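Researcher: Here's a chain I'd like modeled. Treat it as a single chain, no partners, no ligands.
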Amino acid sequence: MGKLAAGALVDALRATILDGGLRPGTRLDETRLGAQFEVSRNTLREAFRVLAHEHLVEHLPNRGVFVRRPSVREARDVYETRRLLECGALREAAVRRAAWCGEPDPDGSTRERHLQHHWETSVLAVVDAAERGWRASESGDWDEVGSANGQFHLALATLADNDVILRTLRSLVTEMRLLFLVVAAAREVHEPYLEDNRRIASLVASGELVRAAILLEDYLLRAERHLVGLYATHTLDGRAVEPRS
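Model: Modeled as a single isolated chain. Structure tokens:
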């Protein structure tokens, strides 16, 4: 791997957390990471600063930098924000698509082609992520199911064609991954929602975005009760601990 700038390093470390490669409580060793990514200590520390701002890592005095373990309150707040943002993104996508389909195109076919390409690409990403998770579950690769689930929710956000929504949700989904890695085995976390992902993907593919948003809201409310409840059983004085074997 070639040398990375701080921004690219942030993206790489964030993706590693999202994919489950860095668990909550893991110490981020500067020497090892510097050699792995071929970056200076200053670049690493700048990346750590950005990730700390995103609440993904924390600096503990005289100990180093660690992947964060969110509190139960944080987990609830993140889930509530994520629900509002994801369902809002789907409803916004419905509004935008209805307006686009019903208004004249002042730039001829160029704008229409752009919007159609974005729509088709985003829908394909939603469907592919849902099916990728389903296939991974059939082969018993539950870590891959978790990665596909994260990509599924990010793909839903792309439908709104709003970079701020996507950027914010990416941070929230990554924070939720920290929760998932603590509460239970990956199968227990993700299996109850695989069929929901496929149903939502099917509604999106058929253009039924409002129905998809309603289903998604119910899904995320259930997931919040389920996963935050599990998370609370693995905490002590508001700090997460590793699940019992």
